[in-house]
């Protein structure tokens, strides 16, 4: 005799509740962002491994007491306070490297800001006028090859003060790539954009802000990235000669005091700051241009 098969409705409902509970359970972060985490490690591990190998080779080459340069272990022993405490203040000239970097960045902000505004305006003018291009472009090509420190004596003679002289050196160093790239961007504006501006009867100011700047933005930000790097390079070099409390003068003072480990630490600060400045301008450019490349 075959027994009839019965279904337990309570068990069925229980199974459905368990399945619904698991469906509502939030996905773990490691699974949700697995691709982003994998991409991060793929980009971070190679430079970290390379850095570790370079430090190891450096340590082996400079470990001897007779070595002219300090090994990484010696740099840590003698200059770890500069690394661990970047914002201490013990006097007008005795302060952490963080404050010195900020002092240099303030000068860069003024000089680079002036160069950015002037460079974009001048580049737009040169890019719009064929006669301005023929007359000014050769001069720009000559002046942009002048090293930053070559301008320092002229700026000191003109301003008779180290602060505006350093800002002028930043300005004159950073403006050329901005001018040249902006002019190239304006010359490469598609003719269709110009036709639309003519149909809409845009005046020169409207054309500048609504057509010229958006169309040339990839070129402009390419020039800005080059300019901010040159600005940081120029201020460090200028501060070695003009003095003050900037990071450049710290390196010169450390050299005069034979503190080589301090110099290596300052170089790390300079490199990291320059990298962050470049990344900052690149991110702003990517947001402003929505990732459009300079063609």
Write up what this structure looks like.
- InterPro entries: MetI-like (IPR000515), MetI-like_sf (IPR035906), NtrB (IPR005889).
- It is a multi-pass membrane protein.
- Belongs to the binding-protein-dependent transport system permease family.
- Keywords: Cell inner membrane, Cell membrane, Ion transport, Membrane, Transmembrane, Transmembrane helix, Transport.
- One of its GO terms (biological process) is monoatomic ion transport.
- It is a single chain.
- This protein has helices at 9-24, 29-32, 34-62, 72-84, 97-128, 130-143, 152-159, 162-187, 191-200, 204-242, 247-256, 260-289.
- It has 295 residues and is mainly α.
- The protein is built from 12 helices and no strands.
- The mean pLDDT is 84.
- It has 2 domains: 28-61; 84-289, Orthogonal Bundle (MetI-like fold).
- The longest helix has 39 residues, at 204-242.
- The chain is 78% helix and 0% strand.
- It is globular and about 75 Å long.
